[in-house]
Design brief:
The protein is of the alpha+beta class. The protein has helices at about 5-30, 60-65, 110-115, 255-260, 335-340, 355-370, 375-390, 390-405, 405-415, 420-435, 445-460, 485-500, 510-525, 530-565; strands spanning about 75-80, 80-85, 90-100, 125-130, 130-135, 140-145, 160, 170-180, 185-190, 195-205, 215-220, 240-245, 250, 265-270, 270-275, 280-285, 290-300, 305-310, 320-330. It contains 14 helices and 19 strands.
C-alpha cells in the first residue's frame, strides 16, 4: 500500500473517530445521537413544591421559600429590547421575552431537507423566551430577606408605580412594595433603553423598635429541561455557573446539585451567579466587595435554586438601607457582558479551545466591522490563516508536486522490487532524498488547519452575534447547516479537483478510496454550520490555486533543467 493511501486511510479513520467522539459527547450532554441513539429521558418537570427538610442555614431558607400560586394579575413591562413579566407574589421576575431575537426553526424544517422530510414551516414561532413559568417549565428570578420575619419572594407585593412602558423615554422605574413584621421592603427595577440589564435597588426600612440586621438573597430557580428550540444536531451546556476571583468561572450541572456534589466557591466578596443556555444567559451581579455566601440546592423534584446571600449592615429603628444589584437576562453578547461584570463573557462556551477561539472571534468581529457581513468575514479570515501558514503549506505542496512528478519512477521501483519490501523501502527513501521530497509534507497543512477548524466550529456555535447572520442568496444563517446543501456539494467538488492535482495512487483499489473520500466528507459537512463549510470551501479553493501555481513552477523549473542538460 502506497504511503499516500496510508495517510488517506489514517485521515479517514481519524475523522471518523472524531465524529464518533463528538456524537457520543452529544448523547452524554443529553442531546440526540446522529446514529439513532437516544439519551436517557428526563422526567417531567414539576412547577413548585415546598421542600420537607428543615432549613439548617439562611441560604437554605432562601432556596426553600417557594411561593404559592399567584393571586394577582401579572405585571408586564415593555422596553425597546424585551418584555419582562413580574409576579406580584414576591415581585419576582417570571418572564423575559427577547423582542429582537425570533425563535429559529430547526434546519431540517426548511430548504431541501424540509422538502424531503415533509416538514415545511408553518406559522410564527414567536420570540425567544428565557425566564418563563408554565405548567411544564419553571425559570424565574427572585430576591428577598431572611434572618427574621421579613418579606421574601413568597409574600405578596403591591405595584406602586404606574408606567409600565418606556414609550419615548430612556429610563423606566417599576416599583413594588411589601410590609411584614414592621419591616418594609421596596424593590425598584430600573430599565434603560438599549440595555438588557435591570438595575435592582432593594430598600429596607426598619419600622420596629429594635435594630435589625437582615440578609438579602438573589437567586434563580429553574428546572433541568432543555431550552425551547434547542438543536437536535448538537448539545450545549444548560445549567448554573458561578464566578469569583478565587476560582474564576465554574459550571455545575443539575445532577451535581441533586447529588450534592456541586463544587463552587461558597464564601466570597465578589463575582456573580448565572443560569446559562445556548446563546443566552440570566445572571445576578451583586456589588463587588460585599461579603456573600453562594449556594445551590434542589428545592423540589427537578427544580433547582442557585443564589447568593448578602449580609446587610445593621439598620436602626426608623432608618432604612438600600442594597443594589444587577439582573441581566439576554443574549451572550460578549462586549456587553464584559462591561457588566468581570468574567461574565466566559458564559460564551467555546469548549477546551477557548484560548484559540477567542482570538478567532476577535478577528472575525474586527473583519465584520470592516465588511459588515459575517460570511465575507469568514472568507477574509480564511485568507489570513492561509497567508500565515503559507510557508509551511507551500513546502508541503512542493513535496506533493515533486511526488507527482516522480510517480513513474516510483512505479518502476515497485515493479522492480515487488518481492523485496526492504530493498523497495531503501530505494524509495533514496529517491525521496535525491528529489528532496518529504513523504509526510502534504499532511502538515491539513494538520495545522484542524485546530483552527475546531475553534471556528465553537465560535460559530457559541457566538450569538452569528445567530441568524446571512451571507448571500440562499445562506441566511451561518450558524446552522446550509438548507440547500449547496456549500457541501461545492466543497466535495473542490476535493475532487484537489485529487487530480495531487499524486495518484498506483493501485486501482487505492485510487477508488481516494475518490470516495470527498463523498464521505461532504456527507459529514451536511450537518455542520454553513459558516464552517464556507471556511473549508474557501480553504480548498485557495489550496487548489496554491497547488496549481506550485505545480506549474516546479514543471517550469524541471523544463529549464532539462533544457540546460541538452
Amino acid at each position: 500500500m502506497g504511503k499516500e493511501v496510508q495517510r488517506a486511510l489514517l485521515w479517514v479513520i481519524l475523522c471518523g473517530s472524531l465524529f464518533m467522539l463528538w456524537d457520543n459527547y452529544q448523547v452524554y450532554k443529553g442531546g440526540k445521537s446522529l446514529l439513532g441513539l437516544e439519551p436517557i429521558p428526563v422526567e417531567q418537570t414539576e412547577q413548585a413544591a415546598t421542600a420537607d427538610i428543615p432549613a439548617p442555614t439562611a441560604a437554605s431558607a432562601a432556596a426553600q421559600a417557594v411561593p404559592e400560586n399567584p393571586v394577582k394579575a401579572p405585571v408586564v413591562v415593555t422596553t425597546d429590547r424585551m418584555k419582562v413579566t413580574f409576579d406580584q407574589q414576591g415581585a419576582r421576575i417570571v418572564g423575559t421575552e427577547m423582542l429582537l431575537f425570533p425563535q429559529q426553526r430547526d434546519w431540517k424544517e426548511v430548504g431541501l431537507a424540509g422538502m424531503i422530510l415533509g416538514r415545511e414551516p408553518s406559522g410564527d414561532l414567536g420570540n425567544v423566551k428565557l425566564l418563563e413559568s408554565t405548567s411544564t417549565h419553571t425559570y424565574a428570578a427572585q430576591s428577598g430577606l431572611v434572618g427574621g420575619n421579613y418579606p421574601t419572594h413568597a409574600d405578596s407585593f403591591k405595584l406602586v408605580s404606574q408606567s409600565l412602558s418606556m414609550d419615548g423615554s430612556d429610563k423606566l422605574d417599576v416599583v413594588f412594595e411589601a410590609e411584614k413584621g414592621g419591616v418594609t421592603v421596596r424593590k425598584t427595577y430600573t430599565f434603560k433603553r438599549g440595555y438588557y440589564g435591570i438595575d435592582v435597588a432593594t430598600t429596607v426600612k426598619n419600622g420596629t423598635s429594635a435594630a435589625i440586621k437582615p440578609q438579602i438573597y438573589y437567586q434563580i430557580t429553574r428546572d433541568s429541561s432543555a431550552p425551547a428550540g434547542a438543536s437536535t444536531m448538537y448539545s450545549t451546556f444548560t445549567g448554573p455557573a458561578f464566578y469569583s476571583d478565587e476560582e474564576k468561572f465554574q459550571k455545575i450541572t443539575f445532577d451535581e446539585i441533586a447529588d450534592k456534589d456541586a463544587s463552587f466557591v461558597e464564601n466570597t466578596d465578589n463575582g456573580w451567579l448565572a443560569m446559562v443556555q445556548h446563546h443566552f444567559v440570566s445572571a445576578w451581579v451583586p456589588p463587588q466587595g460585599e461579603a456573600r455566601q453562594n449556594y445551590a440546592r434542589e428545592v423540589s423534584k427537578d427544580l433547582y435554586a442557585v443564589g447568593t446571600l448578602v449580609s446587610m449592615n445593621e439598620i436602626a429603628p426608623g432608618a432604612e438601607q438600600t442594597d443594589n444589584a444587577i439582573f441581566y437576562s439576554g443574549p451572550q453578547e460578549q462586549e456587553r457582558l464584559e462591561q457588566l461584570a468581570p468574567g461574565l463573557e466566559l458564559v460564551v462556551d467555546y469548549g477546551w479551545l477557548t484560548f484559540l477561539a477567542k482570538p478567532i472571534y476577535w478577528l472575525l468581529s474586527f473583519l465584520y466591522g470592516i465588511v459588515g457581513n459575517w460570511g465575507w468575514s469568514i472568507v477574509l479570515l480564511t485568507c489570513i490563516v492561509k497567508a500565515v501558514l503559507y510557508p509551511v503549506s507551500a513546502a508541503g505542496y512542493r513535496s506533493m508536486a515533486r511526488m507527482k512528478e516522480v510517480q513513474p519512477r516510483m512505479k518502476a521501483l515497485q515493479d522492480k522490487y515487488k518481492d523485496d519490501k526492504q530493498r523497495l523501502n531503501q530505494a524509495m527513501m533514496e529517491l525521496y532524498r535525491t528529489e528532496k521530497i518529504n513523504p509526510v509534507g502534504g499532511c502538515l497543512p491539513i494538520a495545522l488547519q484542524i485546530p483552527v477548524f475546531l475553534a471556528l466550529y465553537w465560535v460559530l456555535q457559541g457566538s450569538v452575534e452569528l445567530r441568524g447572520a446571512p451571507w448571500l442568496l440562499w445562506v441566511q444563517d451561518l450558524a446552522v447547516p446550509d438548507p440547500w446543501f449547496v456549500l457541501p456539494a461545492l466543497m466535495a467538488a473542490t476535493m475532487f479537483l484537489q485529487i487530480f492535482l495531487n499524486p495518484k495512487p498506483t493501485d486501482p483499489t487505492q485510487a477508488k478510496v481516494m475518490y470516495i473520500m470527498p463523498i464521505v466528507f461532504s456527507v459529514m459537512f451536511f450537518v455542520f454550520a454553513a459558516g464552517l463549510v464556507l471556511y473549508w470551501l474557501t480553504n480548498n479553493v485557495l489550496s487548489i490555486l496554491q497547488q496549481w501555481w506550485i505545480n506549474k513552477t516546479i514543471a517550469d523549473e524541471r523544463a529549464q533543467r532539462l533544457a540546460k542538460q541538452k
